[in-house]
Design a protein that fits this description.
The protein is mainly alpha-helical. Helix content is 80%, strand content 0%. α2 (40-47) runs antiparallel to α12 and α6 packs parallel to α14 (283-294). The longest helix has 35 residues, at 3-37. It is globular and about 55 Å long.
């Protein structure tokens, strides 16, 4: 081998090394940009797995085993498309959703959004504190201790923290959802059957199955998410040039949210459904039932996941409502403001927490009826909000080149129409209960 060939090989290695270093630097730069933006999408999607949602997912696994796992794929697509539109509007316009509705459609439309949002979200907040009470009762802590402590905790967190500090805590709460993954592993499910049911739809045309499918869909996409998500990107001052990172944040959040739903259903399907314990009314009851079936750790982790989800949602839902009303009325809003700079925002947050926690502490409070109302209310409110979003995001004078593509419009309109139909089903079953669904 002569010197020229050795020199050529060395030059080639040096060139490849330089190219590799450039790729590493480029990847590191893109990762840094993503980490600077990540937060609103990941937090919003995961907080959707709240106490009410976990109760529905638990019942889906207990009553139908793996049969409903296929629905998670279309739900992931619908969740991503609807949330991405709000993220795009937030970074392009620099305004919150309620703010845009007021400016583009007038106060009357905004007033309807505000009033509906307040009462529906209040019912959701009650459901979250009920989840706190149920989870802590598993650990033998009275609700008269756990609920007031939880209310004070979430109130102080938002009142005293900056946006960045609160966001870090919320991101940590997202990580704690992994307790459901561990619970599912302890349950020793049939992974092959779970995978098959995820990619191959299994349809059963009986009332119970259709009602459960409706519950899954209406729980996955809630209207408060859009307001909180868009406000999060605005408050974080994410600009149009960071739109690709904002979109990636929403995509990661949507997928991670549905992965957790997958493991919750798998865990309860592998234990409760298999052993015939199918009359499970909520997540707390499921956590207790898991202990003799999958071991103490599985049940404890499931209960811990419920507590984390309830606290997480009890912090964010009132924030979303406060944003909706303050933006709609033109008041200052946002965690980075001090109390005296945004008094209406913080008073609304305080009232929602105090009333939500207070109702749970009432003797014989109809918590199950409140949970049903919150789910039906979400279903009624959702298509209205999605239609507002579609009208706004397709305005070229507002969005410029960032208007919706045809595919996004199709998916979003199908979601809105489907939710109208599903709301009618939910409303009917709330008025005329069908009882426990039969096994497929």
């Amino acid at each position: 081998m002569n010197w020229e060939s050795i020199s050529a090989r060395v030059d080639g290695l040096r060139t490849r090394g330089t190219s590799f270093q450039k790729r590493i630097r480029g990847l590191r730069h893109r990762l840094t940009l993503l980490l600077a933006v990540v937060g609103p999408g990941l937090i919003t999607s995961n907080v959707d797995n709240d106490a009410g949602g976990i109760s529905v997912y638990t019942q889906a696994g207990a009553q139908y085993g793996y049969a409903l796992l296929w629905s998670l794929i279309p739900m992931t697509i619908a969740l991503y498309v609807t949330e991405e539109m709000c993220a795009r509007m937030g970074v392009i316009t620099g305004k919150g959703l309620s703010d845009l509705i007021r400016e583009e459609f007038g106060f009357r439309s905004t007033f309807f959004v505000m009033v509906t949002g307040f009462f529906v979200d209040l019912a959701n907040v009650v459901a979250e504190f009920a989840g706190v009470a149920a989870a802590m009762q598993i650990f033998h802590v009275s609700k008269y201790i756990s609920v007031p402590l939880a209310a004070v905790l979430v109130w102080v967190l938002v009142l005293r923290g900056t946006y960045r500090q609160v966001e870090v805590i919320f991101l940590a709460a997202c990580v704690l959802y992994l307790s459901y993954v561990v619970s599912a592993i302890f349950a020793k499910p049939d992974w092959l059957e779970a995978a098959r049911s995820t990619v191959i739809p299994t349809l059963h045309f009986n009332a119970g199955y259709l009602v459960m499918l409706t519950g899954l869909l209406s729980t996955t996409i809630a209207p408060w998410q859009f307001f909180y998500l868009q406000a999060g990107f605005v408050e974080k001052k994410v600009s149009a040039r960071q739109y690709p990172q904002a979109r990636a944040d929403v995509l990661i959040g949507s997928i991670s949210c549905m992965v957790i739903v997958f493991f919750i259903i798998v865990c309860t399907a592998a234990t409760l459904y298999v052993t015939g314990q199918r009359n499970i009314s909520d997540a707390a009851e499921a956590a207790k039932a898991l202990i003799p079936l999958a071991g103490k750790w599985a049940g404890t982790l499931f209960a811990f996941g419920l507590l984390n989800a309830s606290l997480f949602a009890a912090s964010i839902l009132p924030l979303s409502t406060a944003h909706v009303i303050c933006e709609g009325l033109g008041f200052e809003a946002g965690i980075d403001h001090k109390f005296n700079e945004a008094p209406i925002f913080y008073w609304l947050y305080t009232i929602l927490i105090a009333v939500g926690a207070g109702i749970v502490l009432l003797p014989n409070a109809p918590l199950w009826k409140i949970l049903i109302f919150s789910q039906v209310g979400n279903g009624v409110w959702l298509p209205v909000v999605v239609i507002f979003i579609l009208l706004l995001v397709n305005r070229r004078d507002l969005m410029g080149e960032y208007v919706n593509t045809l595919i996004f419009n199709i998916v979003a309109w199908v979601t809105a129409i489907a939710m109208i139909a599903l709301t009618l089903v939910l409303s009917y079953t709330a008025i005329f209960p069908t009882g426990s669904p039969p096994s497929p």
